[in-house]
Structures are given as C-alpha cells and as structure tokens.
Amino acid sequence: MSTDCIFCAIVAGDIPGRIVYEGETITAFLDANPLAPGHVLVVPSDHTERLNDLANDTVSEFYETVHDLVPATEKAVDAPATTVAVNNGDAAGQEVPHVHCHVVPRFANDDGGPIHAVFGDRPDLSDAELDDVADNIRDARS
C-alpha cells in the first residue's frame, strides 16, 4: 500500500468507495468521476504503478476480473457495449500512478468515439518500417 495513493486508500477502506469486486489480489470499484453510468476501475490491491510491473500471479486475476466485469457492467446499466482501456504511464495519460483498467459502458450516440479518436495525426509507416517495429517487439520479448 502507498500512503499517498487514492486507490490504495479505497482498497484499504480508508476512504469510501463503491466496491463491486474484492478478490485475493484485485479490487474493483466505481469511478468517482465516471465517463458513463457504471464506469468501473479494476486495480491490483497492492500498489503497483504500471501494468508491466504486475506480478505474474496477479495478472491472471486482473484480466479475469476485467473479463467478468465487462458483461456484468453492461447488464447492470443496459449498455450494448463497453470500452476497456489501460493508460500505462504518464505519456499515455495515466493520472493515478496505480495500475487501473477502465471498464466504461458505451451507448449509441454517446459521443465517446473509438479508441482511434484519442490520437491526432497518425504515422504513415512504410512496410519496411512496420516490419522493423514488429521485429523489434518480437526481439524485446526474448
């Protein structure tokens, strides 16, 4: 737990939160500043800043919880769809330095747009550049 993290304070019960799931390593609660009714945040119960820092045993419950909460959230608020997103690091727009996955119910004409709307100009990459990026990602996994 981090003493200055709002998500840690919610998990610990030090500040109120509308908890929708509590597991061994994961907690989920309604976002206090929702983008839509039913906007849920799924967080590791232990303070972890970035997705790539999650312990391997936590990753499974994290994604299983997201997987379970998507249909439950859609059903609860009668949403035909959801946007599921993780902002991983400052440059990605992560505002709270504690891993969290947004499960945001989506509705027709909600003006949310697709994930591609987040970005302005897109790079115009050649086939060779795309091949290099793919190779670099494969190599980085080794």
Model regions low in confidence, pLDDT < 50 over at least 5 residues:
none
Q: Structural class, from helix and strand content?
A: alpha+beta
- Backbone shape: globular
CATH architecture: 2-Layer Sandwich
Assign a percent range to the helix content. Answer: 25-40%
Strand order of the largest sheet: 1-2-3-5-4
- Separate helix tally: 3
Strand percentage: 15-25%
CATH topology type: HIT family, subunit A
Describe this structure in words.
The chain has 142 residues and is α+β, with helices and mostly antiparallel strands. The protein has a single domain (6-141), classed as HIT family, subunit A. The chain has helices at residues 6-12, 56-77, 127-141, and strands at residues 19-22, 26-30, 40-44, 81-86, 101-106. A 5-stranded antiparallel beta sheet has the order 1-2-3-5-4, covered by helices on one side. The longest helix has 22 residues, at 56-77. It is globular. The protein starts with 5 loop residues before the first helix and ends with a helix.
Essential attributes:
142 residues; alpha+beta; HIT family, subunit A; 5-stranded antiparallel β-sheet; 31% helix; globular
Write the layout of secondary structure elements.
Blueprint: H1 6-12, E1 19-22, E2 26-30, E3 40-44, H2 56-77, E4 81-86, E5 101-106, H3 127-141
Antiparallel strand pairs: 1-2, 2-3, 3-5, 4-5
